[in-house]
Amino acid sequence: MADRCVAAGGRTGRILIVEDEMLIRELAAEDLTGAGFDVVCACSGDEALAVIEHDSDFDFLFTDIHMPGAVDGRELAVRARARLPGLAVLYATGHADAIGALAVNERCVDKPYVLEDVLQLLASLRAGPR
In degrees rounded to 5, what are phi and psi of residue 66? Predict the structure, then answer.
């Protein structure tokens, strides 16, 4: 089961980080906790779905697109929104040119990303449609 990487009391929102690379996942969790988010982590799409099955109180999904396992980031977003219709999604990828069209409540950040870019995109998701 996923671990609660860190918790900050949810001042900024609650976010599920899904990243198969441990160091990237831990750094993102640390950075977003420092920015005021309540953070929960998963290392795969499959694990993230299990988390959402037991805990459906998330404002944001921050997920890698290409991950090992049966569920990639795009499929994870579709399945997560079936349970959490208002969920905002931020994808992270090293291949942004191949991502295709994004929904109104989705954004994409190129890897490697910097915290300021992630925070700006999360703020735009919170603000609503582009």
Answer: -100, 110
